[in-house]
Amino acid sequence: MTAPQRLTDRKREAIVAAAIAEFRENGFEVTSMDKIAATAGVSKRTVYNHFPSKEELFAEILHQLWASSVAQLDVSYASDRPLREQLRGLLEAKMKMMSDANFLDLARVAIAATIHSPERAQDMVTRLSKREEGFTQWVRAAQEDGRLNCSDPAFAAHQIQSLLKAFAFWPQITLGQPVLDAANQASVIESAIDLFLAGYEVPPSRHQ
């Protein structure tokens, strides 16, 4: 990698770090690209060179948080491993993300920013949904392998992730409840797996 590229990467990282700090402190609406540039120690033009809009910058931050939680996770389906074991790995990664203070703070900012802007809300939901496609692909692969019986893999994937969010995301976002401790996280994960497998797992005797 050349020196100019490294400098560009450092500037990009500085912009993202500054944006996280400003969004958490002041919210989406109040934060300006000028303020982000000043905090990052770069020109406003540099910020726009990396991110065409404030929405793009905010979406990138949320994407990075999600990506960091699954970076070490292999979401590919394995026909020779128990479904419960694979699901546990997927849900533990999801739980790790939802326990991240940065992510929770920025999720609150995102929700506040979208309340009065349905178009912005739809855009952010669409962007984040793309980050959850790996789970859907896993469900589809297990279905094609004859181990899950579900007509809509995307719905089933959304369903099990929503079970986590009901206990480990929405109460923290909307009611200010504390992040679940390790024991409660494990309990929520196992009960979600129980419900999912009870509804969709093909009994071993029927699985060819």
TrEMBL record:
PROSITE patterns: HTH_TETR_1, HTH_TETR_2. The lineage of its organism: Bacteria, Pseudomonadati, Pseudomonadota, Gammaproteobacteria, Pseudomonadales. Residues 9-69 form the HTH tetR-type domain. GO terms for molecular function: DNA-binding transcription factor activity; transcription cis-regulatory region binding. InterPro entries: DNA-bd_HTH_TetR-type_CS, Homeodomain-like_sf, HTH-type_TetR-like_transc_reg, HTH_TetR, Tet_transcr_reg_TetR-rel_C_sf, TetR_C_Proteobacteria. Keywords: DNA-binding, Transcription, Transcription regulation. This is TetR family transcriptional regulator. Residues 32-51 bind DNA. It holds the Pfam family TetR_N.
